[in-house]
Amino acid sequence: MLFACLSFTPSLLPRGGLLQGMICGITAAIGYVLGVLLAFVWRAFADRPPRPP
Description:
single chain; mainly alpha; 2 helices
């Protein structure tokens, strides 16, 4: 959601509706992929069995 919101920040070049929609979709997809990768890494390290003393 953060990446989609970042796509609405002002730019020096005017953007049409179609271009703005494409930018929003692409940045939302990038944010989703980063979130999935972060969750995968988190589960890989957080779900490890405890070390024996």
